[in-house]
């Protein structure tokens, strides 16, 4: 009788590799906390900066919005820098900018704090190209959560240090943001370097060691190494601990620019149009006016006590942080399109409520002898919280996810970069015009205007953005009418598609 064939031995999976990879992701995403803190802390600190330095609303708008424009430099420099010195040391450089900004504000106590703001702007997206490199639809979630945690910490800092003397309080609020930068720079040395960067530098032994720590089995690590070598253009016959890797020419980069910008196909033009629309409407919704100027909004709503102002602002941060966790849970269960439509519809209704409440309050000026209706104040607070909740469950996190999914892999990095450039320019424009706009058409009128823009965004999302949940790359191309799939090379093992992978922002 023939003996039964013995089953092949199943290679045991290692324990702890997922935990190790998750720890590395947490460390890398810590930069998002610092960025979020800088955004959140400015909302409350701006009240005291204006009082202490006696600056105008126009100067304050410049201070609040300058981060977005300088972050463009850091955004486009991140890809080059990370290819040159590696992902880990790029994080260290970004942390140095994080540290230098608050220190400069503290040292120049009598000066205009814009210079420190510029430094932080230069690093704001320099950190994004390093830690937001994951599987599309998954990678952006952790940084989104951490940015919102940072915003909440900034609000809490405002509340905690508001009782200090005017000259000292806002400087401590801003200066304390330097401490986490040092911690980040130290912790990042516990992270491994990117396997893809190690392969690009010919350090195959180091790449094997890193993949061995994060893969389930040695066989999987070897397979992923082969994929990375193929994606990076390293010949298969090159093997050893350290090898000489042929340098790529600039021809590939020029070809990507041609395919995306100079002579795109109709399908790529449709993808670009969808990306620009999505990135534009995310910021044109007025979210920065709420996040950055929430104390001013609540002042206009009739809340005049500083402690009450900042406590209510903290409620905004708590709402954003909790709801973005809900968005991560719903992302692959509900789908992108339903979340964005629900988000934009809810935001439009919330903005109408906020505009209505602020208009009613503005007709009962302080000292006018007529009490402000309590229902109008309550409507303003409730509408603000509803607005940030609807934003955080859809349009906020979904913009990064959707944009990263719809581009063909060959042009994804550049496509994401130009989309984020549109996002940052729109965000900076909104931040730098809110106070002037409110002065021109009233603060209630400003939010009615934003409500109209968000209503247009709902129409745009409904007509232009197909559902992408669960779609393969080939199916994604078909959604936008892409017949040729030749521009979709295999994705490499660490989630990036070409050496052009650039950074993205946040908002």
UniProtKB/TrEMBL annotation:
Domain Major facilitator superfamily (MFS) profile positions: 24-469
Top-rank lineage group of the source organism: Eukaryota
Keyword field: Membrane, Sugar transport, Symport, Transmembrane, Transmembrane helix, Transport
Span list, region Disordered: 485-507
GO cellular component: membrane
Family under the similarity heading: Belongs to the major facilitator superfamily. Sugar transporter (TC 2.A.1.1) family.
Organism: Eragrostis curvula (weeping love grass)
Cellular location(s): Membrane
The keyword Transmembrane is assigned to this record: yes
Residues spanning the membrane: 20-39, 60-78, 84-101, 142-162, 168-191, 339-362, 374-402, 414-435, 447-466
Main location: membrane
Comp. bias regions, Low complexity: 496-507
Gene Ontology MF annotations: carbohydrate transmembrane transporter activity; symporter activity
Membrane topology classification: Multi-pass membrane protein
UniProt name for this protein: Major facilitator superfamily (MFS) profile domain-containing protein
SUPFAM superfamilies from the UniProt entry: MFS general substrate transporter
């Amino acid at each position: 009788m023939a003996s039964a064939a013995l089953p092949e031995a199943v290679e045991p999976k290692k324990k702890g590799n997922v935990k190790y990879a998750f720890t590395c992701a947490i460390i890398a995403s810590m930069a998002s906390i610092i960025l979020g803190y800088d955004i959140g802390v400015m909302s409350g600190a701006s009240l005291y900066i204006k009082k202490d330095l006696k600056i105008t609303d126009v100067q304050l708008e410049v201070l609040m919005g300058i981060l977005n424009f300088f972050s463009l430099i850091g955004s486009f420099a991140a890809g080059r820098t990370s290819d040159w010195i590696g992902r880990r040391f790029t994080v260290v450089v970004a942390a140095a900018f994080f540290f230098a900004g608050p220190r400069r504000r503290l040292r120049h106590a009598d000066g205009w704090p814009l210079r420190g703001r510029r430094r932080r702007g230069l690093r704001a997206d320099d950190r994004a190209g390093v830690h937001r490199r994951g599987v599309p639809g998954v990678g952006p979630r952790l940084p989104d959560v951490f940015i919102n945690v940072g915003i909440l910490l900034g609000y809490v800092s405002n509340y905690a240090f508001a009782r200090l003397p005017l000259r000292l309080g806002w400087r401590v609020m801003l200066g304390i943001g330097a401490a986490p930068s040092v911690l980040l720079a130290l912790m990042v040395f516990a992270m491994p370097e990117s396997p893809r960067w190690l392969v690009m530098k010919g350090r195959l032994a180091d790449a094997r060691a890193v993949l061995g720590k994060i893969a389930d089995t040695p066989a999987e690590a070897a397979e992923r190494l082969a994929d990375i070598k193929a994606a990076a253009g390293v010949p298969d016959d090159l093997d050893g601990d350290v090898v000489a890797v042929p340098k790529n020419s600039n021809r590939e980069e020029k070809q990507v620019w041609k395919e995306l910008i100079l002579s795109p196909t109709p399908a790529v033009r449709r993808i670009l149009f969808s990306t620009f629309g999505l990135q534009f409407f995310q910021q044109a919704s007025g979210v920065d006016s709420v996040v950055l100027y929430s104390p001013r909004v609540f002042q206009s709503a009739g809340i005049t006590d500083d402690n009450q102002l900042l406590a209510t602002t903290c409620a905004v941060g708590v709402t954003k942080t909790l709801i973005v966790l809900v968005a991560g849970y719903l992302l692959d269960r509900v789908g992108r399109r339903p979340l964005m439509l629900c988000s934009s519809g809810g935001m439009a209704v919330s903005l109408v409520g906020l505009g209505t409440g602020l208009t009613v309050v503005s007709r009962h000026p302080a000292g006018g002898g007529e009490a402000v209706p309590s229902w109008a104040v309550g409507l303003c607070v409730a509408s603000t919280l509803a607005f940030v909740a609807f934003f955080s469950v859809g349009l906020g996190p979904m913009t990064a996810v959707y944009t990263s999914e719809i581009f063909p892999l060959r042009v994804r990095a550049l496509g994401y970069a130009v989309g984020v450039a549109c996002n940052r320019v729109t965000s900076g424009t909104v931040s730098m015009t809110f106070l002037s706009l409110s002065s021109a058409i009233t603060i209630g009128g400003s939010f009615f205007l934003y409500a109209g823009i968000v209503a247009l965004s709902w129409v745009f999302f409904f007509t232009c953005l197909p559902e992408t949940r669960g779609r393969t790359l080939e199916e994604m191309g078909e959604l936008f009418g892409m017949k040729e799939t030749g521009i979709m090379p295999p994705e490499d093992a660490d989630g990036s598609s070409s050496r052009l992978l650039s950074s993205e922002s946040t908002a």
